[in-house]
Write a structure and sequence with these properties.
Elements lengths: L12 H52 L12 E3 L11 H7 L35 E2 L4 E2 L6 E2 L4 E2 L7 E4 L27 E5 L9 E3 L2 E2 L9 E2 L3
Antiparallel strand pairs: 1-6, 2-5, 3-4, 6-7, 7-10, 8-9
Amino acid sequence: MRPPQKDKHAFTLIELLVVIAIIAILIGLLFPAFKAVQNQARQTQAKNDLTQIVNAVNAFYTEYGKYPLPTGTTGDFIYGPGGSSSPPSNAELFYTLRGVSAGTMNLNNAANPRIIVFINPPYAKTPTNPRSGIATQAATVPGNCFSVAIGDFVDPWGTPYNVKIDGDYNNQIATNPYGNNNGAGPQPLSIGVIAWSLGSDEVLGTKTTGCTGDGIFTNSDDVISWQ
C-alpha cells in the first residue's frame, strides 16, 4: 500500500509579503547604482561630443582661415543657452559645420561654400524630447530651463551644447564660463574654442534653486572640453 500523500505546502500571505519586501529592498539598493552607471555613460557620451565639436570648429578654421562666426563678430562668441545670438541657440553653428543650407549664417552654404561636413551628429530619436543629437523640431528642455530650437545639437540630457569661440583671434577665451580657478582652469583660457554641457541639472555649476547654479565647476555634473 502507498503511504498517504501529504498536502503540498502553499505560500502564506505573510511569506508572499516578505518575498515582495525583499525584492523591493533589492531594487531600492540597485536603482542608485544603475542611475550612476547610466549617468556616467551619458557623461562619457557628452565628453566625446564636445571633443568632436571642438575638432570640427578647428577643422573649419584650418579650411577657411576663419572661425564659423556671424559676420562682423568681435570678441568671444557663445552658441547655446544664454549665448550671444538671439534667440540663444547653437543651431546656426551646426548648420554651418554640417554643411546644411539652412539658418541665417549658412544660408545657401554662404559660410561653408565647399559644403564640407565637419561634423555629422545623428538626429535625435524622439522629436518631442530630443537627446544626444540634432533636434528636428522645437521642444522644451525637461527641466524647463531652456528651449530647444530646430537644428540644435543637444546633449544626452536634452540641453543644447554651449560653444564659445575666440572672435578676437588672439587664441584666448577671455572669460572662463566658470570664473577664475573655480575648478575649470584659469581666466583667460589660452585656447581658441571651448565647449561644455550643463549636465543633468541644466545649470552652470552646482544647482542651487530652480534654474540657478553657483557657477562653480568643482563637484558639479557639468562636462567640459578643456579638461
